[in-house]
Amino acid sequence: MNMHSLIQYLIFLAVVLLLVRPAGSYMTRVFSGERTVLDPVLKPLERIAYRVGGVIEKQDMVWTEYAASFLLLSLVGTLLLYALLRFQAHFPFADPVHLTTPIPPDLAANTAISFSTTTTWQAYGGETTMSYFSQMIGLCAQNFMAGAAGLAVGVAFIRGFVREKSGRIGNFWVDLTRAVLWVLLPLSFIGSLVLVWQGVPQNFNAYTNASTLEGANQTIPQGPVAALEFIENLGTNGGGFFNANGAHPYENPTPICNLLEMLAVSVLPAALTYTFGQMTGRVRQGWVLLGVMVTFFAAGIFICDRAEQRGIPQATIAGNLYYSATNEQTGGNMEGKETRFGIGSSVLTAVNTSNTATGSTNSSHDSYTPIGGAVLLVNMLLGEIVFGGLGTGFYSIILIALLAVFITGLMIGRTPEYLGKQVGPAEIKLVTLYTLAAPVTLLLLTAIAVASTLGLAGLTTNSGPHGFSEILFAYTSCLANNGQAFAGLNSNLPFYNVTTTIAMIVGRFFLAIPALALAGRFAAQGRRAANIGTLQTDTPLFATVIAGTAVIVGLLSYFPALALGPIIEHYMMTR
């Protein structure tokens, strides 16, 4: 790790940590109905939204009603986006000359579900497939609604620990409205203006045809990029306006843009730990969870940077390439990385976005070394516990904490409870369902793909361990609602459009619903007073237990698959 990269990592992490408290306090006020500086402007809009939607602000929901509302919003959003994509040619800004990729039913359904689940998995190139109308009205709108829905579910989950003997966890439509108006909309407006200042386009101009110095013809896409770019990161969505995503100079032209977009990805999910601490009255609990996140984040940065900076050893031994940093070069594995970002910014972006449900990239992950790529894969396999998706990542780490409480309680004879809420047989069944849903789905889909002709047909450039990693990475990304991909896999095939859709649905709804059910059970309980038999869960020791539980559960579930992919590929590379 060179000094420039180290300074960059430390600055990024320091800024995130500095913003956790103010951002977390702000979200506490927003979702607790307390006064904020934006109330004079937004309160009238909120009342209009409730009047139009027939929402009764003070009417809270039990978890089944909350989950049904969450599912309804996702279903309606998916159907509307599907219809828009299927009839894109009949809407404004249709450009048959440049939009050459057709949108058949399977791709339209995959894309619609992808954006309604914040996965934003893209089996297409944006500039050759989506019109300006589809990008702005369809994809951008879903980035707001899906991101806000995830945040709403995360806040409802927190209320399960706050409330007693009620069973009610809030009103989904109220939480959704406040998430959009008070959180996502103002931040996106300011962030998009900054991106425009930095050179990100926001126009509706026709594509520009230009001649290069060599005399070749070049088509330069235009479009309302800034509006989509910031919310895709802020809502932990990640779908790029262009096929190259954050590596495209129109999406990410400067280091300031790169830093701003990465902060947009992580600050709100990290700040939910402080929101949790404030709402429950146990701020130390929030700091413990944040400490676990930061530890995993730092470990991922260190391992991935070391792997990419080291490069491919046998190439150096053969005398073909020089990976050492000199005055003329940064050294390391620069394949698939933008020279304007280098290894430092590329690794920071890759680790940051793979820890969350954000598929933004500024480098080709398929070109990373086996260990570097494995870090990104493991980040997603851990289940969004490091910052994670907006709202969804928070309940992921809490469920790991509940599993840690249960296991530790059995080992030392302490009462399995967390924040005064008892973790009994019914609760641990929901935790187990959540824990098993991901590996069962992921490993089954991967096995079907590698054992079938239809699945292997997507491997256009690689086979062997790396081809296996490409398939495993695709399903992992979809299940984690992340959207990143190893580009060597052609996923725009009916087989992958269907199977990745299954992974996205499981990753969004089959994990969120058990979390909401658990919140409902906790909200119906009373609060047990702490006593001598209560396990202390706000200490560094318990933070270590949470981290250990996450690692052990991950290894037990996924180590054989990792061994068949990046681990064996690493040994083949270094032998």
Could you walk me through the main structural features you see in this protein, from its secondary elements to its overall organization?
Strand 3 and strand 4 (421-422) form a beta hairpin. The chain has a domain at 25-270. The strands form two sheets. A two-stranded antiparallel sheet has the order 1-2. Helix content is 64%, strand content 2%. By secondary structure, the protein is mainly alpha-helical. It has helices spanning 3-31, 39-53, 63-86, 105-116, 126-129, 132-162, 172-197, 225-234, 255-280, 283-310, 313-317, 342-355, 370-381, 392-412, 425-450, 453-456, 464-479, 494-524, 540-574; strands at residues 208-211, 217-220, 417-418, 421-422. The longest helix has 35 residues, at 540-574.
Radius of gyration: 23 Å
Note the gap between the termini. 24 Å
What would you call the shape? globular
Strand proportion:
under 5%
Sheet with the most strands?
2 strands, antiparallel
Helix content: 55-70%
Biggest sheet, spatial arrangement of strands: 1-2
List the quaternary state of the chains.
single chain
Order of helices and strands: HHHHHHHEEHHHHHHHEEHHHHH
Return the average pLDDT rounded to an integer: 88
Low-confidence stretches: none
Counted by DSSP, the helix tally is: 19
Number of strands: 4
